[in-house]
Structures are given as structure tokens and as C-alpha cells.
UniProtKB/TrEMBL annotation:
<keyword id="KW-0472">Membrane</keyword>
<dbReference type="InterPro" id="IPR006665">
    <property type="entry name" value="OmpA-like"/>
</dbReference>
<keyword id="KW-0732">Signal</keyword>
<dbReference type="Pfam" id="PF00691">
    <property type="entry name" value="OmpA"/>
</dbReference>
<dbReference type="GO" id="GO:0009279">
    <property type="term" value="C:cell outer membrane"/>
</dbReference>
<dbReference type="InterPro" id="IPR006664">
    <property type="entry name" value="OMP_bac"/>
</dbReference>
<keyword id="KW-0998">Cell outer membrane</keyword>
<protein>
    <submittedName>
        <fullName>OmpA family protein</fullName>
    </submittedName>
</protein>
<dbReference type="InterPro" id="IPR036737">
    <property type="entry name" value="OmpA-like_sf"/>
</dbReference>
<dbReference type="InterPro" id="IPR050330">
    <property type="entry name" value="Bact_OuterMem_StrucFunc"/>
</dbReference>
<feature type="domain" description="OmpA-like">
    <location>
        <begin position="438"/>
        <end position="559"/>
    </location>
</feature>
<feature type="signal peptide">
    <location>
        <begin position="1"/>
        <end position="19"/>
    </location>
</feature>
Length: 560
């Protein structure tokens, strides 16, 4: 009962898998294939770091040299010497009586001149009514008013004046320089440093790389049930969607635990030297504590008192007014002119003499100053000091100089990588429908490859044959089987291995052209599938043997 139930389920499942989508209206002579969309894989190269990059350190020790160093044992200075002042005699004039002025009186002048004076004005008379006249008096200036100047003389007095006979001067006194001793510290020896190196350390580890991902595919049972009621035994086989586990590769790697490092230690530590700086020496040097200087001593000047006449009040003038002189005269004047005919009566004139007097004035006359010549001693050049240089003294000391301190030479050791090829699923496949195919691709198709005897190396002609006939088929996305055969000559085991190598040679060439290895199945059949009578122990021609030495391909499935 249980067996019948299993058969029934298998039949239902087979009918569902195949019966539901068999080709409708198939044509005689046509070939069909169930189009199972293959899983599409892509090869990717993954770089795995099996050894990390690290540093190698090498110590180059410090180098020293001995140097003679010149230092100043006595600094340069200066001494001062006095250069005395230079004196000379010069003459000078002293005004004993200053210049002044006096006024000289310029007397007035007089002149005589005549003047015609109208004593009777011109008039006219009327014939009918005579004119009426009367006498009038008037004054005539015979001498106009003027001024005369009276001189007021200047006032003088005698004064005492102090004049220098010898000017004040100076003299210099030198204060010598003061010298002392000092202790100078210098670098007698330079110290470098020492370097200790710790090498890089590593730990062993491993890294798992997935070279082929997990997948799944439909698989049919090999043997159909014995009680299958269908004429086609494939209808009763089980279809199982089995998982294909991922393929991993474990790669041993090294991890960098700690990179190389260095520690620098000074060759001389002041803490271990009593707190004193390392490599120091001392020497005594003479220095100038106080430079030389000068002190100025004043020398007073010499004077002399003389008498000098000085004008206190300059001369002036006083003006005296002199009144004008006048003369009273009488003249006849027409009071009423005639009212009728007028008769002109000429004027009567009289000549009068008068005196013209100019005013008195003064004229200024200069009185020159009176001076006297004296001699005096003057300093023509002040006292100075002359600098006397004191030469610097030097001494030679031996010192140790650091040419180059200890250093670390760093070398980079690059990381080591390993390239692993893994398959990556780019497109998931599955069951689809039936599809008409070219029947010639479902059977074996010969590749015209003439292998050299015992060789599995492709010739250029063989590669051209693959490029022309097989490569275009694979580029459509189908899967193929490469089958290679030999003739019966030789042992069966050696023929089996040779045919396998030849099939693999074709596969390797296709992979180099970019074909995914999952699309190729390579099988070597040796002498198991002879196409003629030429088996072991049968005598055949070379042409007959050549028919068995063949390489073929056939399509395993079709792409969607």
C-alpha cells in the first residue's frame, strides 16, 4: 500500500512537471528541450593579504670628531691718553665811546619879492545913476608865520665795562680702565644617543574565502519506479531541488601583532651626572669690568675792567613858532552898481614888496665810535683723549663634536597578497518551458582538430577551429560538453589520460577567452567509443585510426 502511494505521488508530480507544459503541436523532425535557465556565475579575483606590511629597523650609531676650538681668553679693550688743549693769542677791539649823532642847525632863509595888489577893483558907472562907492580896509600878509628849531644837545656819561682777556677752558683727566677675571663654561664634548630596536612580531591566523557560493539545482532520480504506468520512464522519476553547499578555501595568513619600534636613550643623562650638564669644561678669561673714562676740569677765564663813554640821551630839537606879519590897507569898493548904462572903470593896482622867510631846520651829523685794541688768549683746540687699543688674546681648546647622532634606518616590507578566484552568482536559474532547438547541437559535433601524436597542445589551426565553430555557440550562454577520443593503439589507461588532457586543453583555451568554467564539461573517453572496427588486435589503416582520434562537442541545455 505504501509503495503504491509513493508511485502515485511520483506519477502526479511527474505529470505536473512534464505534462503541464509539453510542447503543443510538435512537428516531426524537430527537437525540443526543456529550457532550464542556468545559474549565471561570474569569476572574480579576491586579493587576500597573507602577510601584512611591516617595518624593519636598523640602527646607525652616532659619529664624533675631535675639533680644536679657539676661544677668547682676554677680551679686547681700550685705554685712553690725554691730548692737551691748544691755546693762541688773538686781538679784539673794544668800543670805548659808542657812535652817536649831533644836530647842526640849518638857519632860515629870506627873500624879497613884489606882489601887485588891487587897490581899486574894476567897476562900471551908469550914465543916469552913478555908482555908489565906499572905502574898506583889509589885511595883507607881508611875512607869513614860520617855525624855528632850537637844538637840545645829547647827554653822555662814563661807565665801567668788563672785557675778557682770556676765555674760560677745560682740561681732561683720564680715569684708567678696570680689569677682572671670569670663568667661562664651554661645550667640551657633545653626546649623541643610543637606539635599541624591537622587531615586528606576528601571529598565525587563517582566512576563509568563499570561492564558489551556495546554490541549488533541480535533479532527477537516476532510476524510475518499477511500477511506472507511463510509456516514458522519465515521467515517473522524482525531481528534487537540492542545495549545493558553498565551496570555501582556507588560506593561512599572518597578522601583524606589533610593528617594529625603536627606543632612543641619550648617552649622557644629566640626572646621572650629579645634575650637571654633560660634556662641559671651563677656562678663565680676562674681561674689562669698567672701561677707561675722562674727568673734565674747568679752567676759569681772565677779565679786565675799562671805562667807556655811553650816550644816555640822544640830541633832540625844540620847535619855536614865529607869528606872521600883516599890513592893513584900505580899498574902495562899489557897493551899488549903476542901474542904467554901465561904464567900465578899470581896477587900480599898487605894487607891494614882501619878504619870504623859510623855516629853520637841523641836519644830522654822525659822530663815529671810538675803539681800542686789546689782546687775549683763547683756546683754539679743546683737550681730547686718544684711544689706545688693547689687543684680544685667544687660546685653543680641544672639543669633541657630534657629527651625526644615532639614527634609525627604516625599511618598509610590503604586504604579501594571494589572489583567489571565486565564483559569484549573478543570476539565479530555474525551470521554464520547452523550446525548439537545432537538432545538430543535441548530438555530438566534430571539431576538426588534428592532435600531434601523444600531444595535448593546441596548434594555431586548432585554436582557429575553436574560435570559428565552438566559441560563438558558448557566447550565447549555453552549456556544452567537450568530448575527446583516441584510437585503440596503446594502453586503455594511457589513452584515457591523454583524451582527458586534450579535452581539458580545449576547456582551458575557452576559459582564457572569457567563458565561465561552469558552462563547460570536459570528458576524456579514451578508446571506449570507437566509431569503426579498429579495436585492439585488428589491423587498420592510418586513415581508419584517424577517424577514432577526434574531439567533439554537444549542447547540454539552452539558455532562456
Amino acid at each position: 500500500m505504501r509503495k503504491k502511494l509513493v508511485v502515485g505521488l511520483a506519477f502526479v508530480f511527474g505529470s505536473f512537471a512534464f505534462g503541464q507544459d509539453l510542447p503543443t503541436n510538435p512537428e516531426p523532425g524537430k527537437c525540443y528541450v526543456r529550457c532550464v535557465t542556468p545559474d549565471v556565475y561570474e569569476n572574480q579575483e579576491v586579493r587576500v593579504m597573507v602577510s601584512p606590511a611591516y617595518k624593519k629597523l636598523k640602527v646607525v650609531p652616532a659619529t664624533y670628531t675631535n675639533v680644536n676650538e679657539t676661544v677668547v681668553s682676554k677680551v679686547a679693550g681700550e685705554e685712553l691718553a690725554v691730548v692737551p688743549a691748544v691755546y693762541g693769542t688773538e686781538t679784539f677791539d673794544v668800543v670805548t665811546k659808542e657812535a652817536s649823532q649831533r644836530l647842526v642847525k640849518v638857519p632860515s632863509t629870506s627873500s624879497r619879492e613884489t606882489e601887485t595888489v588891487v587897490v581899486k577893483e574894476a567897476s562900471y558907472k551908469l550914465k543916469i545913476v552913478p555908482a555908489v562907492y565906499e572905502n574898506r580896509t583889509f589885511e595883507v600878509v607881508t611875512r607869513p608865520a614860520y617855525q624855528k628849531v632850537e637844538i637840545v644837545p645829547a647827554v653822555y656819561e662814563t661807565r665801567d665795562v668788563v672785557i675778557p682777556v682770556k676765555e674760560a677752558s677745560q682740561r681732561l683727566e683720564v680715569i684708567p680702565a678696570e680689569w677682572g677675571q671670569e670663568t667661562v663654561t664651554y661645550k667640551k664634548r657633545e653626546f649623541g644617543s643610543s637606539i635599541s630596536i624591537t622587531k615586528a612580531s606576528f601571529t598565525d591566523d587563517f582566512e576563509t574565502v568563499e570561492i564558489k557560493p551556495a546554490a541549488a539545482e533541480w535533479q532527477m532520480s537516476e532510476i524510475p519506479p518499477a511500477d511506472c504506468n507511463s510509456s516514458n520512464p522519465d515521467d515517473c522519476r522524482y525531481w528534487c531541488y537540492k542545495a549545493i553547499p558553498a565551496q570555501n578555501e582556507i588560506i593561512p595568513v599572518k597578522r601583524l601583532a606589533a610593528d617594529a619600534s625603536s627606543v632612543r636613550t641619550p648617552d649622557c643623562d644629566p640626572n646621572n651626572n650629579g645634575g650637571k650638564p654633560c660634556g662641559e669644561g671651563t677656562f678663565t678669561r680676562t674681561i674689562m669690568v669698567k672701561p677707561a673714562s675722562t674727568r673734565i676740569i674747568e679752567i676759569p677765564g681772565t677779565t679786565k675792567t675799562i671805562k667807556k663813554t655811553v650816550m644816555v640821551t640822544p640830541p633832540t630839537t625844540r620847535i619855536i613858532d614865529v607869528p606872521a606879519e600883516v599890513k592893513t590897507m584900505t580899498r574902495r569898493v562899489m557897493v551899488t552898481p549903476p542901474t542904467t548904462e554901465r561904464i567900465e572903470i578899470p581896477a587900480v593896482t599898487e605894487t607891494v614888496r614882501k619878504t619870504i622867510i623859510t623855516n629853520e631846520s637841523t641836519r644830522v651829523e654822525d659822530i663815529p665810535a671810538v675803539s681800542q685794541t686789546y689782546k687775549k688768549t683763547v683756546m683754539t683746540q679743546a683737550p681730547t683723549t686718544r684711544t689706545i687699543p688693547v689687543a684680544q688674546k685667544e687660546t685653543t681648546l680641544k672639543t669633541t663634536k657630534l657629527v651625526e647622532d644615532a639614527r634609525v634606518v627604516e625599511t618598509e616590507v610590503p604586504a604579501v597578497y594571494k589572489t583567489v578566484t571565486k565564483e559569484v552568482l549573478t543570476k539565479k536559474g530555474g525551470l521554464t518551458t520547452w523550446k525548439e532547438v537545432d537538432c545538430k547541437f543535441l548530438t555530438y559535433n566534430d571539431l576538426n582538430i588534428n592532435w600531434n601524436l601523444g600531444s595535448a597542445t593546441l596548434t594555431p589551426a586548432a585554436k582557429r577551429e575553436i574560435d570559428t565553430k565552438l566559441l560563438p555557440v558558448l557566447q550565447t550562454g549555453v552549456s556544452v560538453e567537450i568530448a575527446s577520443h583516441t584510437d585503440s593503439r596503446g594502453s586503455a589507461a594511457s589513452n584515457e589520460a591523454l583524451s582527458q588532457r586534450r579535452a581539458q586543453a580545449v576547456t582551458n583555451y575557452l576559459i582564457s577567452k572569457g567563458i565561465n568554467p561552469s558552462k563547460i564539461v570536459s570528458n576524456g573517453y579514451g578508446e571506449r567509443r570507437l566509431v569503426n572496427r579498429c579495436k585492439d588486435g585488428v589491423s587498420c589503416t592510418e586513415r581508419e585510426h584517424l577517424q577514432n582520434r577526434r574531439t567533439q562537442f554537444r549542447v547540454l541545455d539552452q539558455k532562456n
